[in-house]
Amino acid sequence: MNTVALITGATKGIGREIARQLGEAGYIVLIGARDPARGEAVAKEFVADGIKAAAVQLEVTDPASIRAAAARIAAEHGKLDVLVNNAAIIPAGDGGVSEVAASALRAAFETNVIGLVEVTAALLPVLRKSTAARIVNLSSSLASFTQVGDPASRMSTVRTLGYNSSKAAVNMVTVMLANELRGTGILVNAADPGNCATDMGGWDAPRTPAEGAAVAVRLATLGPDGPTGESHAESGRLPW
Ligand code: NAP
Q: What are the angstrom distances between the C-alpha of 190 and each of 14, 109, 140, 224, 232?
C-alpha cells in the first residue's frame, strides 16, 4: 500500500529537503505550501525526478486552509502515514526579553505553536487511519533549557525570545501528544536539524538543508520499537 507524508512549509529550506528525502524513500509526498504556485513548482520538479509528489495549499495560521487540506487528504488518500510539522518563522521584531516586540511574540506563537497544534489536531483522524503513523515536529537547540541555560553554549547568546520560547512550547506539545497517543502505534518526536544554510538559518550556517533534513526523516520512518516523546539531533537523543 502507498505511504503518504505531508510536510508543512515544504517550499524551501529544510522542509523541501525532508520532502525530497521521503519521496526518494518511496513515500507519496504532499508539499505543504501557503503559496499554491510555489508548492506546484516544487511538486513538478520532484515528479520530474521520479518522486510521487503533489502540492497541498496549507497556511498553518488559517483554519479554513487547514480544514481544506485535511479534507483533501482524507478524500484522496484516506489516511496519512507521516506528518512533519516543519513550517515556522523567526518574526520581525524578535529579540531578547528586554527588547522583543509583543507583536513578534504573538506572531511566533501563532505560526510555530498554534498553527502546528491546529494542523496536527485536524490531521489526527487521517493519521489514526494509518497502521503506524509518525509525527515529527521541527524544534531547535534554541528551545533547549539545557543549552540556552549553559553560559558556555553559543545558544545562550541568541536573543530571539519569540522563536526560542515558541519552539520550547513545541517541545511540550511533542511530549504531551506522545502521552496522549501512547499505545496507539503513533510515535511523536521532535527533530533538531542543527544550524542549516537556509533563509532562516543564515546562508553561512555550517550544515546543508539536506543534512538538517536527515534527522527528521529518520524520526518519520521509525520502526514500531522507536522512541516517542523525545527530541533527537544527528548526534542522538537531546536533553530538553
Ligand atoms: P525557511 O527556509 O525559512 O523555511 C520555512 C518554511 O516554512 C517555508 O516553506 C515557509 O513558507 C514556511 N512557512 C512559514 N510560515 C508559514 C505559515 N504560516 N504557513 C505555512 N508555511 C509557512 O526555514 P528552515 O531553515 O528551512 O527551517 C525549517 C524548520 O527547521 C523550522 O521549523 C525551523 O524552526 C527549524 N530549524 C531550522 C534551523 C536552521 O538553522 N535553519 C535550525 C533549527 C531548527 P514560504 O516559502 O511561503 O515562506
A: 14, 17, 9, 17, 6
